[in-house]
C-alpha cells in the first residue's frame, strides 16, 4: 500500500512537471537534511545545442569568488561523487581548489587509477579553467544518466585543479593585447619555469614559489598515472621533453622563434607520448590540422602535436617534472590562439574540447595494471616497475596496486623491491583489449642469500651495517694488508709520507712493489664532502672487501683487474666525530651540516695543508680514472665536454636490474653540493687530465645505518662496471726508426678532444675506450705524425704493437747558413690554462692574447664558461700573455716556451676585481659622489626656496582689491544700508561737536 501511494504521488508530480514542489514535499516528509539548489531540466532539443548539459548553463568567465561559489554549489548538489579540497594557498592567500570526482571520493582505492587536470597556470590563459568548470558540471549532471560518464566516474579517480595561479587571473584582462598581464603569479614569477629541472637551475627556479610547492606536494602524495596541463596561446598538443641539456646556457632556444634551430629531445616513452598527444588532437575539430595562429604564422604542427624542446625551450616546466621526478605521464594542451577570449566564445570552445577532454581521461585505462604481492599475499608497496628499456619508473602503492601506460604490443616488465628478488615478466597487449592485468608475486631475498649470489658471501657488507669510527677505519685498512694473505695485493699507506699523515689510503694491485708503468691508475675517494664521506667510505671499504675476496677465490675478472691496474682507495676521515655527533643526536637528521667542506676548500685559492697535499697527490699520480661518491640524487656526474665519457657513463649504468633515479627533494645545500662537484669535475679534468665520475648513493648524506646494506646492494653492479672500463681499449709503444722510445710522444683521438701522453720510460700508451672505430694520430716533437685506424671491441684490449715515427725531412733547393739568433725558425706550441678570480671562480669571456713577441698573426682567444682557454701556434722563447676581462684588472704573465713543441698546460691567471670607478678607488668615488649629490640637493632646495619666496611676494592679498559678494543680511546682522540701498563698506568716523 505504501509503495502504491508513493508511486501515485511521484506520478502526480511528474505529470505537472514540478520538481521543485516534489523536493519540498520530500523535505517535509523526510526532513530537510541538505539545502538543495534545484534547476529545471532543459528540453531535450536544447541539450546538445547547449553543449550537452541537462540543466541551463551559463558560459561566462569566473573570477576567484565566482569560481569558489560554483564549485561549492557543485559539491553541495553532488556530495556522493565529489569532494572539494585545497592543496595550498597562493602568494596572496587564495586557496588552490581541487575537485575530486569519483564514485567513492576521499581516498585511493586499490586498482583504481588516479588522473589530474591542471589549468590556469598562467593567470591570463583562462580557457582551460572554464573548460574544467564546465567539464565538472557535465560529468556530475550525466552521472547515472550517461553510461560512458557513469563508467568513467566509477572506475577513475579524477582531480581537477581549476586555477593554479588565481592571483594572476584576478589582474588579467580580456582586452589585453600584450598577452602578458596576469601571466606570472603575485611575485612576478612564471610558474611554468619554476619547477626543478633535470638539466639545471637558474634564477627562474632557484626559489620555489608557494603555488609550485603546493602542486609538487600534491602530485607526490597521490599515485597519479596520467595528467594534462591546460594552456592557451596556440592550438597544439605538446609532449616532453620541454628542453635540452644545453638550454640553460643558450637563451636563444627559449625564444618562440621558428628561425632558431632546435633539436628534438625525446623521452624513453616517445611513441607513447606521441599517441597520447594525437588522441587529443584527432578528437579536436581543428587541432589536428596543425594550422598556425595569426601571431605566429610560420608555426606549423604536423598532426597538431609537437615535442616541446623542438618547438621552443621551456626550462623548469611542469610536464617534464611530472615525468622525471613524479613518474606521471603529462602533456601540455594549448587550447586556442586567444588566451582570454570573450565569454560569448566559450560555448564554441566547450563544444570543441568536450570530447577530447573525456577521451584523454579514458586513456588512463590503456596499458598494464595489477598488484605486486609477496609469496604470502601481502602487498608490496613502493615496488619499482619498469617496461622494456625505458628508465621511466612507476611504483606500486600502499595496496600493492600499480598502473603502467603502454601501447599495444609485446613488453618486458621488470619489478624491483627492497628485500625481494628481482623479477621479469613478458606480456602482450592486443589492440582490441588495450590493457591487460598482470599480478606479480615476489619472493623474499634476504641479505645472506644475496651476498652468496653477488658478493662472495661477505656477510659483513650487508649484515649489522654501521658507520665506523676513524680508528676502526684505520684498523680495517691495516687488517686488509696483514691478514688473509692479502699482503701480496694490498698495502696500507699509514705515515709513510706526508700525504699519509693527513689521509689514510690503501693500494690494491697484483705484484706489489713491481713496476707499475704498464698499469692503469684508478682512484676511489670516499667523497669530497666531509658530510657524505661517512657513507662513501663504508661503500668504498665494502668494495675493497669484494675485490680482496674475489682475488682469494681466483675470480677471473678480479685477477685481470689487479693485473692491469693499481687501485688507490682513500676514505676521508676529517671531521667524522663532529658529523657523527650530529647523527647520534638525531638519527633522522638526514643531512648533517658543516662549513668549509673539503670540496669547497679545493676550489678556494687560499693555501691550506690538507687541500694542497691532496692536489699535489693528484698531480703526482696522474690517475687514468677516478670515482667519488655524492648524495642528494642517484645520478652519475661526469666531464661533459667529451662524448667518450658519456658512453662510459652509459656503460657504468648498464646493469641488469636498474633502480629508478631517486626522487630527492631539492634544497639549497644539495644544489650547492652539485655545483661544487661539477666544478671539481671540470677542474680535475682540465688541470690534471683526470676523468672523474661521481656516483649518487642516496637522498640523505647520512642515511640510517641500517640502509647502508641496501645502498650497497643497489650500487654494487655500477661499481663493478666502473672497474671493468679498463678491460676495453688499446695499448702500444712509440719509437723512432732506431727503436728508441719517444718519451715525449702523444696520441690524439681524431674528432675528439682527448690527448694521451706516453709513459716516461718505455713510451707506452694505454687507452681506455668504449667499443667503436677510431682514428689515432701519434705525434712527437720533430717527428712526422702517424695516423692509425683502430677498432675497439667490448672486453678486449687491442695491441697496436710498436708504432715507429720518422724524423722530419726538410727538402730544399739550396742550402743556407742561418746565423744563431737571426731568422731562426720557431716551433709552434699549444698553450692552455684557466682564468679565475680570487675566489677560484671561472671568469668566462676573458680575452687572452700574446703581446710579445709580435707575431705575423694576432694570437688571442677567449675563455669558455669554465674559464678555460687554448692558444695555438705559440712561438718558442719568452712569451708575454695578457688577460683582459670586463670588471677585472688586466694581468700579464711571462711564459717560457721551449722549442721542443710540447704543449704548455695549466697556465692559470687569477684576476682581481676592478674596484676603481672612473679612475678612482671605489671608496674615494663614493665620497666624492656623495658630496656632489649633497651639493646638488642643497642647490635644488635653495633654488626652490628662492622661487617660492618670489611667488609669495607677488601673490600677497593686499595687492588686489575686490568687493566681497553680499547676500543681504546673511553676512551681517546689522542693517547698515544707506538710502540708496547699497552697503557702506567704510563708515566715516563720528565727529564730536
SSE map:
Elements: H1 2-15, H2 19-30, H3 44-47, H4 64-77, E1 82-89, E2 95-101, E3 114-119, H5 127-142, H6 147-155, E4 157-161, H7 166-171, H8 210-221, E5 224-231, E6 234-239, H9 270-283, E7 305-307, H10 308-311, H11 318-324, E8 329-336, H12 346-362, E9 367-374, E10 384-387, E11 393-395, E12 401-405, E13 409-416, E14 423-429, E15 435-437, E16 440-442, H13 447-454, H14 470-482, E17 490-493, H15 498-502, E18 505-508, E19 520-525, H16 533-552, H17 556-564, E20 565-570, H18 576-585, H19 598-603, H20 609-621, E21 625-630, E22 636-637, H21 643-653, H22 668-688, E23 692-696, H23 708-723, E24 729-736, E25 746-749, E26 755-757, E27 764-768, E28 772-780, E29 783-792, E30 797-805, E31 829-837, E32 847-852, E33 860-862, E34 868-874, E35 877-884, E36 891-897, E37 904-911, E38 916-917, E39 920-921, H24 922-954
Helix pairs in contact: 4-5, 5-12, 9-12, 16-17, 16-23, 21-23
Task: Write a structural description.
This protein is α/β, with parallel strands linked by helices. It is built from 24 helices and 39 strands. It folds into five domains: 49-365, 3-Layer(aba) Sandwich (Aminopeptidase), CATH 3.40.630.10; 368-445, Immunoglobulin-like; 469-727, Aminopeptidase (3-Layer(aba) Sandwich), CATH 3.40.630; 729-805, Immunoglobulin-like (Sandwich); 829-917, Immunoglobulin-like (Sandwich). The longest helix has 33 residues, at 922-954. Mean pLDDT is 85; it is low at 10-38, 810-826 and 968-988.
Shape: globular
C-alpha-based Rg, rounded? 39 Å
Q: What is the CATH domain class of the largest domain?
A: Alpha Beta
Lateral strand order in the biggest sheet: 1-2-4-3-5-8-6-7
Amino acid at each position: 500500500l505504501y509503495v502504491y501511494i508513493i508511486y501515485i504521488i511521484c506520478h502526480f508530480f511528474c505529470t505537472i512537471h514540478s520538481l521543485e514542489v516534489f523536493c519540498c514535499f520530500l523535505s517535509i516528509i523526510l526532513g530537510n537534511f541538505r539545502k538543495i539548489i534545484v534547476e529545471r531540466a532543459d528540453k531535450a532539443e536544447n541539450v546538445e545545442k547547449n553543449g550537452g548539459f541537462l540543466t541551463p548553463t551559463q558560459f561566462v568567465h569566473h573570477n576567484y569568488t565566482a569560481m569558489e561559489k560554483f564549485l561549492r554549489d557543485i559539491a553541495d548538489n553532488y556530495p556522493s561523487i565529489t569532494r572539494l579540497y585545497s592543496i595550498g594557498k597562493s602568494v596572496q592567500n587564495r586557496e588552490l581548489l581541487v575537485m575530486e570526482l569519483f564514485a567513492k571520493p576521499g581516498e585511493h582505492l586499490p586498482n583504481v587509477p588516479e588522473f589530474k587536470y591542471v589549468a590556469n597556470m598562467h593567470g591570463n590563459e583562462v580557457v582551460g579553467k572554464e573548460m574544467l568548470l564546465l567539464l565538472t558540471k557535465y560529468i556530475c549532471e550525466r552521472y547515472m544518466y550517461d553510461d560512458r560518464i557513469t563508467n568513467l566516474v566509477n572506475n577513475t579517480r579524477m582531480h581537477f585543479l581549476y586555477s593554479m595561479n588565481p592571483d594572476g587571473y584576478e589582474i588579467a584582462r580580456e582586452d589585453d593585447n600584450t598577452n602578458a598581464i596576469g601571466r606570472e603569479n603575485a611575485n612576478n614569477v612564471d610558474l611554468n619555469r619554476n619547477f626543478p629541472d633535470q638539466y639545471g637551475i637558474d634564477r627562474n627556479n632557484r626559489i620555489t614559489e608557494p603555488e609550485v610547492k603546493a602542486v609538487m606536494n600534491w602530485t607526490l602524495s597521490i599515485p597519479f598515472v596520467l595528467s594534462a596541463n591546460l594552456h592557451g596561446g596556440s592550438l597544439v598538443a605538446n609532449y616532453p621533453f620541454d628542453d635540452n641539456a644545453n638550454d640553460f646556457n643558450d637563451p636563444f632556444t627559449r625564444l618562440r622563434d621558428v628561425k632558431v634551430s632546435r633539436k628534438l629531445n625525446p623521452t624513453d616513452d616517445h611513441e607513447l607520448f606521441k599517441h597520447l598527444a594525437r588522441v587529443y588532437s584527432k578528437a579536436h575539430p581543428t587541432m589536428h590540422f596543425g594550422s598556425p595562429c595569426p601571431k605566429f604564422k610560420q608555426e606549423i604542427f604536423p598532426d597538431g602535436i609537437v615535442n616541446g624542446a623542438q618547438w621552443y625551450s621551456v626550462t623548469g616546466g611542469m610536464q617534464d617534472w611530472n615525468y622525471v621526478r613524479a613518474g606521471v605521464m603529462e602533456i601540455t594542451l594549448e587550447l586556442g590562439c586567444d588566451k582570454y577570449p570573450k565569454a560569448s566564445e566559450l560555448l564554441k570552445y566547450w563544444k570543441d574540447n568536450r570530447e577530447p577532454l573525456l577521451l584523454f581521461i579514458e586513456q588512463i585505462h590503456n596499458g598494464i595494471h595489477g598488484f605486486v604481492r609477496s609469496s604470502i599475499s601481502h602487498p608490496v608497496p613502493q615496488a619499482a616497475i619498469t617496461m622494456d628499456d625505458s628508465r621511466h619508473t612507476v611504483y606500486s602503492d600502499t595496496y600493492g596496486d600499480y598502473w603502467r601506460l603502454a601501447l599495444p604490443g609485446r613488453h618486458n616488465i621488470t619489478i624491483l623491491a627492497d628485500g625481494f628478488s628481482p623479477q621479469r615478466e613478458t606480456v602482450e597487449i592486443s589492440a582490441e583489449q588495450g590493457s591487460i592485468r598482470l599480478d606479480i608475486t615476489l619472493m623474499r631475498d634476504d641479505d645472506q642469500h644475496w651476498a652468496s649470489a653477488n658478493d662472495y658471501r661477505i656477510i659483513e657488507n650487508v649484515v649489522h651495517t654501521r658507520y665506523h669510527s676513524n680508528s676502526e677505519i684505520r684498523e680495517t685498512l691495516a687488517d686488509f694488508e696483514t691478514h688473509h694473505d692479502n699482503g701480496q695485493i694490498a698495502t696500507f699507506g699509514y705515515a709513510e709520507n706526508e700525504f699519509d699523515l693527513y689521509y689514510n689510503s690503501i693500494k690494491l694491485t697484483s705484484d706489489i712493489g713491481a713496476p707499475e708503468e704498464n698499469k692503469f691508475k684508478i682512484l676511489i675517494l670516499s667523497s669530497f664532502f666531509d658530510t657524505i664521506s661517512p657513507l662513501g667510505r663504508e661503500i668504498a671499504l665494502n668494495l675493497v672487501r669484494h675485490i680482496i675476496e674475489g682475488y682469494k677465490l681466483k675470480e677471473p675478472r678480479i685477477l685481470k683487474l689487479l693485473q692491469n691496474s693499481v687501485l688507490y682507495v682513500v676514505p676521508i676521515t676529517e671531521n667524522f666525530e663532529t658529523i657523527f655527533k650530529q647523527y647520534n643526536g638525531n638519527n633522522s637528521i638526514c643531512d648533517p651540516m658543516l662549513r668549509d667542506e673539503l670540496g669547497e676548500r679545493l676550489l678556494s685559492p687560499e693555501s691550506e695543508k690538507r687541500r694542497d697535499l691532496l692536489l699535489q697527490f693528484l698531480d703526482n699520480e696522474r690517475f687514468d680514472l677516478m670515482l667519488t661518491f655524492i648524495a642528494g640524487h642517484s645520478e652519475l656526474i661526469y666531464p661533459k665536454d667529451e662524448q667518450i665519457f658519456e658512453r662510459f657513463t652509459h656503460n657504468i649504468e648498464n646493469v641488469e636490474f636498474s633502480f629508478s633515479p631517486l626522487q630527492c627533494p631539492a634544497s639549497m645545500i644539495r644544489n650547492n653540493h652539485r655545483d661544487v662537484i661539477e666544478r671539481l669535475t671540470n677542474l680535475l679534468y682540465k688541470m690534471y687530465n683526470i676523468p672523474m665520475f661521481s656516483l649518487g648513493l642516496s637522498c640523505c648524506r647520512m642515511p640510517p645505518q641500517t640502509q647502508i646494506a641496501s645502498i650497497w646492494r643497489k650500487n654494487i653492479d655500477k661499481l663493478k662496471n666502473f672497474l671493468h672500463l679498463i678491460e676495453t681499449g688499446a695499448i702500444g709503444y712509440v719509437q723512432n726508426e732506431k727503436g728508441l722510445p719517444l718519451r715525449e710522444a702523444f696520441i690524439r683521438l681524431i674528432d675528439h678532444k682527448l690527448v694521451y701522453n706516453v709513459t716516461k720510460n718505455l713510451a707506452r700508451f694505454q687507452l681506455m675506450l668504449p667499443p667503436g672505430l677510431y682514428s689515432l694520430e701519434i705525434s712527437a716533437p720533430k717527428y712526422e705524425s702517424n695516423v692509425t685506424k683502430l677498432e675497439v671491441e667490448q672486453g678486449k684490449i687491442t695491441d697496436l704493437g710498436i708504432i715507429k715515427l720518422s724524423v722530419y725531412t726538410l727538402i730544399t733547393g739550396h742550402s743556407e747558413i742561418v746565423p744563431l739568433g737571426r731568422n731562426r725558425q720557431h716551433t709552434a706550441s699549444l698553450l692552455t690554462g684557466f682564468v679565475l678570480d680570487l675566489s677560484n671562480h671561472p671568469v668566462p669571456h676573458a680575452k687572452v692574447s700574446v703581446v710579445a713577441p709580435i707575431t705575423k698573426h694576432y694570437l688571442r682567444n677567449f675563455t669558455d664558461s669554465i674559464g678555460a682557454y687554448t692558444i695555438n701556434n705559440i712561438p718558442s722563447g719568452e712569451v708575454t700573455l695578457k688577460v683582459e676581462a670586463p670588471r677585472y684588472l688586466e694581468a700579464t704573465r711571462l711564459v717560457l716556451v721551449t722549442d721542443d713543441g710540447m704543449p704548455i698546460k695549466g697556465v692559470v691567471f687569477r684576476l682581481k676585481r676592478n674596484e676603481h670607478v672612473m679612475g678612482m678607488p671605489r671608496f674615494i668615488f663614493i665620497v666624492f659622489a656623495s658630496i656632489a649629490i649633497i651639493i646638488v640637493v642643497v642647490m635644488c632646495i635653495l633654488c626652490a626656496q628662492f622661487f617660492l619666496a618670489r611667488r609669495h611676494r607677488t601673490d600677497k592679498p593686499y595687492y588686489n582689491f575686490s568687493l566681497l559678494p553680499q547676500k543681504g543680511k546673511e553676512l551681517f546682522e546689522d542693517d547698515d544700508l544707506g538710502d540708496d540701498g547699497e552697503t557702506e563698506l567704510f563708515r566715516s568716523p563720528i565727529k564730536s561737536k
